[in-house]
Design brief:
Length: 201
């Protein structure tokens, strides 16, 4: 159990959640997408939301700005969250368009607002759970897809709710976060996605 809880923090790391949301969208959408077009989008998400942040992390670590990828210290979160905001804006500008990909475009608008909220809280010395924030946002997006396309995703949603609980338990087990930090992360992840439903549902 200890191993499962610890590995969950790596499998469901915030860096992988945008890719998980986009991948789930392409799997469940009834809208036909050219395979080459789909793969191009997926590669862009991998490069911009995973590869570049990882390279940036090693750069920040070599400069002594961050100590670990978990960003346990509140002060360490400032520059990675700023960089994440810029990368999400780049993704929205270059990859996803509001008229071509409204679901994914507003998914990333939600991620942008969520990340900005987390960044603002850093300046008030409040550390929220980025893990919980990320998986909660993806979960709300999946619920939106089920409503939008009128398809039964009950098992997918059940899986994501289970993962939310697993991530929360993992963060508590490793003493990485407190209950308020987890609850704050959950709502900061969910609320922007929920508000943006009105733009694409």
């Amino acid at each position: 159990m200890n191993f499962l809880l610890r590995i969950a923090a790596y499998i469901f790391h915030p860096l992988f959640m945008p890719l998980l949301g986009v991948g789930t969208y392409f799997v469940v959408t009834p809208r036909y997408t050219e395979p080459q077009f789909m793969m191009a989008k997926m590669y862009a998400v991998i490069i911009i939301t995973i590869f570049i942040p990882l390279v940036s992390y090693f750069l920040l670590r070599s400069l002594g700005i961050v100590k670990s990828i978990h960003l346990s210290d509140i002060a360490e979160r400032k520059y990675p969250l700023m960089a994440q905001c810029l990368l999400i804006l780049l993704l929205m500008k270059m990859v996803f368009k509001p008229y071509d990909d409204p679901e994914l475009y507003y998914f990333f608008v939600g991620i942008l607002f969520t990340t900005m909220t987390a960044l603002i809280l850093v300046f008030f010395s409040f550390k929220i759970s980025l893990h919980q924030m990320a998986i909660a946002g993806v979960t709300m997006f999946i619920i939106g897809l089920s409503i939008h396309f009128q398809i039964n995703l009950i098992y997918t949603m059940a899986f994501f709710f289970f993962v939310n609980g697993l991530v929360a338990t993992s963060r508590l087990h490793t003493k990485s976060h407190t209950y308020p930090e987890l609850i704050g992360g959950f709502f900061i992840g969910v609320i922007p996605q929920l508000i943006l439903f009105s733009y694409w549902l």
